[in-house]
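We recall that each integer encodes one residue's backbone shape. We quote one record:
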Amino acid sequence: MKKTPTLIALLCALALTSVGIAAKAVQPPPGFTALFNGTDLTGWRGGDTFDHRKYLAMTDEQRADQVAKWTADMHSHTRVEGDELVSDGHGKYATTTKDYGDFELLVEYKTVPLADSGIYLRGVPQVQIWDHTNPKEFKNGAEKGSGGLWNNSPGAPGKDPLVLADKPFGEWNQFRILMVGSRVSVWLNEKLVVDHAILENYYDRKMPIPVKGPIELQTHGAEIRWRNIFLREIGTEEANKILGSKSKEGFTSVFNGTDFTGWEGPVENYVVENGAIRCKPEKGGTIFTKDEYSDFVARVEFKVPAGGNNGLAIRYPGHGDTAYEGMCELQVLDDNYEKARGEKIDPRQAHGSAYGMVAAARGFHRPVGEWNFEEVTVKGSTIKVELNGFVILNTDLANVHEFMANSKHPGKDRTSGHFGFAGHNDPVAFRDVEIKKL
């Protein structure tokens, strides 16, 4: 049939209308990006319950081969219907081709009775989705509802949702997931079900989860539909504010942002500028609070130059080398120190380590020039260090009997002392210093 100009115009109008409808269906909120475009699987690959660190360690050829197999399987069980991403409940998982660090994720889902699914965050299982009316799963906590970090250890914060928030089958549920470091908060249908809990590393519980990884939509035994999948990446300043805003009760500022009121030691070797304490180049020494602390939690933001070196003085007696005379010096060190300085260091010298005694996990620093957020908890002989939302050290110094270079630490059993900064000639800066006595 010959198409008249009027018919051609009508067809074009209909096509444009269809495009407009599809675009509207996946219109992300301001600041968000649509992970699913409502049309096809662009931006998605196949994935599995697989340690993302091992995935990244593969050669390019190995990785491409693995992804091809996963993706082919995923396509045989996942389809697009209108603006919905539909899984039949089998096969590999729809997985973003891009890796994400800190983010806010919005997603809607609708599933069926006996369903068991979830959302992997940075490739780590999982924010749980299941049938909370299924008595066969009550032994696993199904009656408590969806949204919990189900793969956390029994009794760990976040494993079970705080409230039952699931909607009846046939209705769409809405997740809002906020992730900073390994800290996760989850809202299900606008109800808070996980509050700033640590997502444990399912693949190696002794290590923090990866800094970056994909979003995976788990498929597990029954149909699940997804739509309106939007993500907003969170920058350093916002991430630090989120971390610093939690559990504020009981914290007191010990640095006024203007001068050294309340501080002692060689303050002449430091300067206050732009609301931060900074060690002067080629200067150092330990400055410390006038007050002493026994058990406490300290929060501080810090920024290091390339190769920068400093430390947090813990239970410092007010004299001598804090690494030995105090309970310990918690290293503040550029995570790329070896590359920047061309020097090899002992693992017990890396950032967050109890200097010379216990090594911290590495790789959780922000880039040089950005502010990092650190929280230190000291209880009795134990110390926990959380950097940018990742627990990088959790140790009991009472159990330490081997020391770097066989240099003993006579102060490690101290029960109280000052808090401070142990400068080592580099312009490392600190701000927003707060302490809560326990």
Notes: Helices lie at 5-25, 52-57, 60-75, 236-245, 322-325, 337-341. The longest strand covers residues 224-233. Residues 241-437 form a domain with the Jelly Rolls fold (CATH 2.60.120.560).
